[in-house]
Amino acid sequence: MSIKPLHIIFLCLFFIVTAFAIIDHNEFPVPKDWPKPVYDFKSNPYSNEKIELGCSLFYDPSLSINNSTSCASCHSPYNAFAHTDHQLSHGIFDSIGTRNAPALMNLAWQSNFMWDGSIDNLNEQALTPLTNPLEMGERIENVLTKLNQKKYYRTLCANAYGDSLLTKDRFLKSLAQFEVSLISAESKYDSVIRHEANFTEQESNGYKIFKTNCAACHQEPLFTNNSYKNNGLSLNSSLHDFGRMNVTHRSKDSLFFKVPSLRNVEYSFPYMHDGRFTKLSEVIRHYTSSISKNPDISKELIKDIVLSSSEKVDLIAFLLTLSDKKFVFNPQHSFPKQLINAQ
Ligand code: HEC
Ligand code: HEC
Predict the structure, then answer these.
(1) Which ligand is nearest to the CA of 206?
(2) How many domains does the chain contain in total?
(3) Is the beta carbon of 71 within 6 A of some atom in ligand 1?
(4) Residue 144 CA, ligand 2 centroid: distance in Å
(5) Are residues 286 and 230 in the same domain?
(6) Could you read off the pLDDT of 218-244 as tens digits, one per residue?
């Protein structure tokens, strides 16, 4: 077959289209040997420009009714995007909410959100804190009006979407993009798994204890199996929060809460859905001696966990290998300084 000019034109077109596809959508970086992310990148293709816009939105207090509270007020980068100053979330006008703000990381591998899994789409999650009267107390329409008055956002939006109008859909998708970009996979544990470092004897012993007693729920490499479990905490008598049962209305889900990842647990205190524990030693004490033998406790914890005091120290030493300083201090996720003068 002879090559005709038409063939050459088609070939050129093919290359141009492929090149644009590559330039337009950055590749989502999946850490080595991790499962495939579950976030739907088809409906919201990964792009650095959207992440940049989402990052500014995340740190911007004008998302709240009195321009005081940003997403980052409760999800601080230095605490792996959790907050440590209050057991329960702390929103506008010093309001105290009903749950502890969880760490935000590796959200691309999560399909349900909140301690009870009440939200199943990350692209819509942001509307909940934004409109919650104890958190940001705003209306999305007001927020969009405020932001669209700023040249700063019009430019970021044009870079991300080729059009400067920040719509609700673009607002939500950009926030979700920023959130899925929060990948934590650079802890000492990760280096050991990649054969680039070694555990100390204490950490190594702690890892064995962890695998025997904890890993069934806090499953590697994400340190959660993304399920709901009853880990034996007694009912919080002032909050009366029954967790997953509030969503499913099935009594067998009573006091079931989402299994949180244990990555960066050194930074994300206080712990549990109501922030009842401040120290890891209190968490270990819970699992070893104060599990309430309620009839609904998950089967993985029916058998007592017996650990000597030195084994408890080893277990904590292992948990501290999950700290990812590169993640916590990553300048790409930190407060965008341009936001200060944004007009
Ligand atoms: C006043 C504190 C506060 C503010 C402000 C806040 N959050 Fe949260 N966030 C929480 C709390 C508390 C929860 C857990 C809620 C629950 O389980 O019902 C949560 C849960 C989440 C989750 C689910 C995480 C998971 O692993 O299930 C995401 C995602 C999230 N917030 C993102 C955001 C974004 C984006 C914003 C800004 C639009 C924001 N948050 C503003 C306190 C806050
Ligand atoms: C049956 C499943 C299960 C097992 C086994 C289990 N956990 Fe948990 N873990 C959970 C659940 C569910 C929560 C959240 C409970 C809540 O907030 O009400 C949790 C919470 C935690 C937290 C708090 C994290 C945070 O960000 O608030 C830590 C730390 C923790 N577990 C460590 C451990 C350790 C260490 C072991 C082993 C000794 C262990 N877990 C065994 C299910 C389990």
Answers:
(1) 2
(2) 2
(3) yes
(4) 39
(5) yes
(6) 999 999 999 999 999 999 999 999 999
